[in-house]
Amino acid sequence: MEAPAGKGSLAYRAQTVADYSRRAKRPEASVLVAGWAMSNMSPLDFLWSEQPLFTLRPEASDAATMLVAGADLVSRTMVMALRDVKAMDVTEGTRLDPEREGFYLATQVGFVAALSALARGEAAEGIRAARLVTLRRQVLAQFDAVALNGLAERDITPRDTLGFSRRPTAQRIITTRGQLLGNMHGPKIHEALGLTPPEFAKRKAKA
Q: Are 60 and 119 in contact (CB under 8 A)?
């Protein structure tokens, strides 16, 4: 087995795949990947798919790792924003798993295209910057679609034991969306993608 690039990662590349990557004459290939989705030692589903296998130079490989880290950060940020706007507690977070899956499905084609561009030797920084725009657009579109759903019925929704409506209010949506937008322009997502954050984001982070 080949050790993963990221520290603490549980993902290992099979030795046959690592060997192929080193001796392959073709720049691109595909590989079948499969595994169980688990929850508390209980199997939820068996997943498998055919994924492209790219042979990347070290710099391109680092950029690919950043693309994955950036998408992971954005998806987690989106889920937290949706959980807040829906007034969910942590134990209810799994109800938003379909939204995270939808996020990755919607951005998969662009991700593969980015990897292909890296394999061709295109400038990594430009690819990462373009990816940020794509991720930002998708997460805001998904947030709007979910957060605005059912907003018109908020006044007739039964309230919980503390007297608070479980439906999102307009003010909560506006506030949470503003925070989400700020995160999408903030230093953390730029750093995850290896990009220099804009000056206003640096100043806000220090404030």
A: yes
